[in-house]
Each structure stands twice: as structure tokens, then as C-alpha cells.
From TrEMBL, chain A:
This is Aspartyl/glutamyl-tRNA(Asn/Gln) amidotransferase subunit A. Pfam families: Amidase. It comes from Paracoccus thiocyanatus. GO terms for molecular function: transferase activity. PANTHER family: GLUTAMYL-TRNA(GLN) AMIDOTRANSFERASE SUBUNIT A, MITOCHONDRIAL (PTHR11895:SF7), TRANSAMIDASE (PTHR11895). Keywords: Transferase. Belongs to the amidase family. Residues 26-449 form the Amidase domain.
Automatic annotation (TrEMBL), chain B:
This is Uncharacterized protein. It comes from the Bacteria. It comes from Paracoccus thiocyanatus.
């Protein structure tokens, strides 16, 4: 097994494939050999499709040898979250109810990656139906955080986070309804980007809450996330919420330059009830950005005080509508935790839901006004260090607080507004990764990525790596 | 007068366990307190922003 090859980023391994220093078959076989070993510790994969991966790798090798190189994903092996459809293959949503579901079509994001020559190694574990954040799945088992196997990887894309952090997938996609890309990316020390709502098609991705759902990259580096976004972004008429807005250039402008950048800080919401080690790291990184020529301005977004109720009323209502029939006819087939959430979602009235949408519009207007004053907002991604598997409380400055509500407190607002939001590693607190969140203007992912690159270039993780790594 | 949670759910064909009912009642009280933040939010001017697009999902 070539451990150095496993630890490459997606764009690094793509460069080796392009230069014919390594073949897609060698890269894929090396990764498959490692998955056999690593999955026993992380439980990141639900299924491994070794045979079809090797077939795809052989096909990529032929195409590249014949001079038909398609780009950075050509011949690169990766796995996707198991709520993203693959044509004629099982997609389980990590559930009992959908354990044998076979889609007749690829999701649009699957199709775009397939067309780009990606090699699919399997499907990744997740919180059941993406409705939770600890990834302690009753049907497929708990996923373990590669930085500390006793800790949660975050969720709902916890398998995605653990797979990339343990180097058992070169990169991947997550889905994000209240933070499910950014939470596990933060907990696992990765870059995770929730694009602008409508930037990436959701066609063929099982919904959690239609108006809040997003699909986006989870990656070892900002460059990898940019390359993934460039491949999957763009209008798709099959997704009713997809926006017909030109796709930006996410890769060529990535230089990490922040001179003249205006950073907004909202103290009242995004720096309230934050665990000490997390707050310290985020403020240090902001100070580092200032040293590089950025300026910091405090901004006010008063309606953030409503954000938690609006996120809960919207997500719980929409999710319960999607699963209403199964809750009436076969509730025992859901895990107890999500069954409880579906029961809770049935309690909101139509008036509650519509008032939440009014408050959401107000929140959007205030975020837009703030982002006229500054280029980006910076905040912690999570207000705490990830807890142990099985804990339903988190420690914030010595107080035991609700895990779920605090998990989505800083990520949920960007699902409500639809604005792009990315987490990048800001350093280690208590030996665990801490994520810094960058929120940008609508469709301004290029700037968000570039600020992330500036943070990445500070090398805040030093030479530390997860314990479950090659 | 509001109906007990058990009755609201029963009317929708959903039967939570006794353990869940206790938890649901506690959580719903927390949500009502959270919703209290909407008081004074002056929402009258805010359209709900759902779009009714004639002829399909997208313009053009």
C-alpha cells in the first residue's frame, strides 16, 4: 500500500494521473486496499463497489492513454454520501425503509462527476435520512471521528467527513440542510462548502427539507473544494430551485490574497455562548487576516435572534411532510431519534410555518444589508469541541448544553438565507479540529473560497493528522 | 384552549410512545419560548417569498 499516495489531495493525485506518473488503476486499487482496513475503524462506508470502481479506472486509463484527458476528476476514486442517487444502484439514505431502493437515474451531481471521469468506490454512511448530527446510525452503525474514534464525526454527512479525513476517499460531496456539510467538515478537520441555494442541482438527492437543502463539496483542501464546485455547479431544469446564473471561475483566482478585504463580525449572535478554546482560535485567525491587510467591522443582524426557531419550524415541518405517510404506516422502521423529530414536526401549524417564512425573509434582508457593508462574515462553525459518541449534551464553558440545538446554531442561518458558507480548519482545540466559517454574498463562492485559502495558507493545523490515517 | 399533544398527533394518525410524549411536551414548551423571540419582529411587511411561477419551474 502506498501511504503517501493515499494522503495526497484530490488535485495533487489528479496532477499525477494527468502527468502519467501514476495510473487510475493503481490509485484505485491502492485506495480499495486501504478502505478494507480503514473502514473497520471508521465505519465511513455503507457499501464498497470495488469491481465497478476498477472497471471505471480501467476505462479512464484507456481514455487518458489515448490522449483524451477530461480534467481533474478523470480517474480519481471517490465515494459519495448514500442519499445521492446512482443509476441502477441501491441508495439507502442509511435507513431501513429505503435499504433496497434502486434509482433509475443518476443524481445530476453524480452524472456530472461521472461525465468528468470520476471513479466511484462506494456509498458513505450518514445520519438516517440526513436528519441528525451525531451519525450514530441504528441500521448501519456509528461512524467514528478519525481524530479520536470515541468522538462523533458530526453529521449528517459524518461518513463523508470520516472518509475524507481518514484518506479513504480523495474528496466527496455532502448535503446540508442545517449544517450537514459544515458540521462534519469542522469536526473532522476538512474544508466544507455549502454553496448558494440554487447553485448546485439537488435533482436525484433524497430531500430532508426542500427549501433548506444544499449539495456541496467536502475536501482535504480549498483547491479540491473549488475544483469540485466547478464540476457540479450550474443550471439544471430538473431541479425546480436551481438558479440560471453563470458559473464563476472558482479555481484560477485562488491566491489567498485578502488585502483590502472587509470582514464582518456579528458579536451578539455568532460569538455568544462559544466554548473558550473555539473562540480563541477563531479570533486568532481573524487577527491573522487583519495582519495580511483585511479590515474588520462589527455588523448588526438583529433578527438572528429568531433564527433558531425559524430553522426548527421550517426544517421540522418540511421533513415531517416528506415522511408523513411512513410515520402513519410503519413508524417502527425509523430510528427512535428521527421518529421523535418527525413527531415534533407534526406539531407546527400552517400559520407557524408561514410566520417562519416571513421571519426568514426579514433575516435575508438583514444579511443582505450587512453584506453591503462588508465582503464576508466570519464566525465559528461550531460553538464547541465535538463530544463523545452517545452524548446528547455538549460542554460550552463548563455548562452542559443541548447537542443538536447548539450544533446548528451557527450553521442554520445560512440555510435559511441560502447564502454560501464554508468551513475551513482554524486549528486544534482539546486535540480536535475547530472550523472557521466564512459566509459570503449570494453566488460569490469565489471570494468565500479565496478567504478560505488565506486561512488554509496559515497552516493552522501544523503537522498534526488524524489518528485513523495511513 | 389547545389540544394535548397526544390528541393533535392522534388526529394525524401518529401514535408516539409514552416516553416520547413526555419528551415532546417538554420540547414543545422550549419551542414556544423560542418563538417568543418573534414578538415585536414587525413581520407584516415581509412577503413569504414563495414563488408561483406559471408554466413550469423556471422563467425563460
Amino acid at each position: 500500500m502506498d501511504k503517501d499516495l493515499l494522503k495526497k489531495t484530490m488535485t495533487e493525485v489528479a496532477g499525477l494521473i494527468k502527468d502519467k506518473k501514476v495510473s487510475p488503476v493503481e490509485v484505485t486499487q491502492n485506495l480499495l486496499d486501504y478502505i478494507d482496513e480503514s473502514n473497520k475503524k471508521t465505519n465511513a462506508y455503507i457499501s464498497v463497489t470495488a469491481e465497478s470502481a476498477l472497471d471505471s479506472a480501467r476505462q479512464a486509463e484507456k481514455e487518458i492513454s489515448a490522449g483524451n484527458y477530461k480534467g481533474v476528476f478523470h480517474g480519481v476514486p471517490l465515494a459519495l454520501k448514500d442519499n445521492i442517487y446512482f443509476k441502477n444502484e441501491v441508495t439507502t439514505m442509511a435507513s431501513k425503509i429505503h435499504k433496497d431502493f434502486v434509482s433509475e437515474e443518476d443524481a445530476t451531481v453524480t452524472e456530472r462527476l461521472r461525465d468528468a471521469g470520476a471513479v466511484f468506490t462506494g456509498k458513505l454512511n450518514m445520519h438516517e435520512y440526513a436528519w441528525g448530527i451525531d451519525n450514530n446510525n441504528p441500521h448501519f452503525g456509528a461512524v467514528h471521528n478519525p481524530w479520536n474514534p470515541d468522538r462523533v464525526p458530526g453529521g449528517s454527512s459524518g461518513g463523508s467527513g470520516a472518509a475524507v479525513a481518514s484518506h479513504s476517499s480523495y474528496t466527496t460531496l455532502g448535503t446540508d440542510t442545517a449544517g450537514s456539510i459544515r458540521i462534519p467538515s469542522s469536526a473532522c478537520g476538512l474544508v466544507g462548502l455549502k454553496p448558494t441555494h440554487g447553485r448546485v442541482s439537488k435533482f436525484g438527492v433524497f430531500p430532508l427539507a426542500w427549501t433548506l437543502d444544499h449539495v456541496g463539496p467536502m475536501a482535504k483542501s480549498v483547491a479540491d473544494a473549488a475544483a469540485m464546485l466547478a464540476t457540479i455547479a450550474g443550471f439544471d431544469p430538473r431541479d425546480p430551485t436551481c438558479a440560471n446564473v453563470p458559473v464563476g471561475d472558482y479555481t484560477s483566482g485562488l491566491n489567498g490574497q485578502v488585502k483590502g478585504l472587509k470582514i464582518g463580525i456579528n458579536e451578539e449572535y455568532f460569538f455568544k455562548n462559544v466554548d473558550g478554546p473555539v473562540e480563541k482560535l477563531i479570533r486568532e485567525r481573524i487577527a491573522d487576516l487583519e495582519k495580511q491587510g483585511a479590515t474588520v467591522k462589527k455588523v448588526s443582524i438583529p433578527s438572528l435572534r429568531n433564527a433558531e426557531w425559524v430553522e426548527l419550524a421550517t426544517s421540522l415541518s418540511e421533513a415531517s411532510a416528506i415522511h408523513h405517510h411512513d410515520m402513519q404506516t410503519r413508524p417502527e422502521d425509523f430510528g427512535a431519534d428521527i421518529r421523535f423529530l418527525f413527531e415534533l414536526g407534526e406539531l407546527f401549524t400552517a400559520v407557524d410555518y408561514l410566520q417562519a417564512q416571513q421571519a426568514r425573509r426579514q433575516l435575508k434582508a438583514e444579511f443582505d444589508a450587512a453584506l453591503q457593508e462588508v465582503d464576508v462574515l466570519i464566525a465559528p462553525t461550531l460553538p464547541f469541541i465535538p463530544p463523545n459518541i452517545g452524548d446528547d449534551k455538549v460542554n460550552i464553558n463548563g455548562k452542559q448544553m443541548d447537542f443538536i440545538e447548539n450544533c446548528i446554531r451557527f450553521t442554520g442561518p445560512s440555510n435559511l438565507t441560502g447564502l454560501p458558507a464554508m468551513t475551513v480548519p482554524a486549528g486544534l482545540g482539546d486535540g480536535m479540529p475547530v472550523g472557521l466559517q466564512i459566509i459570503g454574498r449570494a453566488f460569490d463562492e469565489a471570494r468565500v473560497l479565496n478567504v478560505g485559502k488565506a486561512v488554509e495558507d496559515m497552516k493552522p493545523m501544523g503537522d498534526k493528522s488524524p489518528v485513523l490515517a495511513p | 384552549m389547545s389540544l394535548p399533544i397526544k390528541d393533535v398527533l392522534a388526529a394525524k394518525g401518529i401514535k408516539p410512545s409514552a416516553e416520547h410524549l413526555t419528551k415532546l411536551e417538554a420540547k414543545w414548551k422550549e419551542f414556544e419560548a423560542l418563538k417568543g423571540s418573534l414578538e415585536g419582529a414587525h413581520l407584516d411587511d415581509y412577503d413569504i417569498s414563495l414563488k408561483n411561477i406559471a408554466g413550469g419551474d423556471h422563467h425563460g
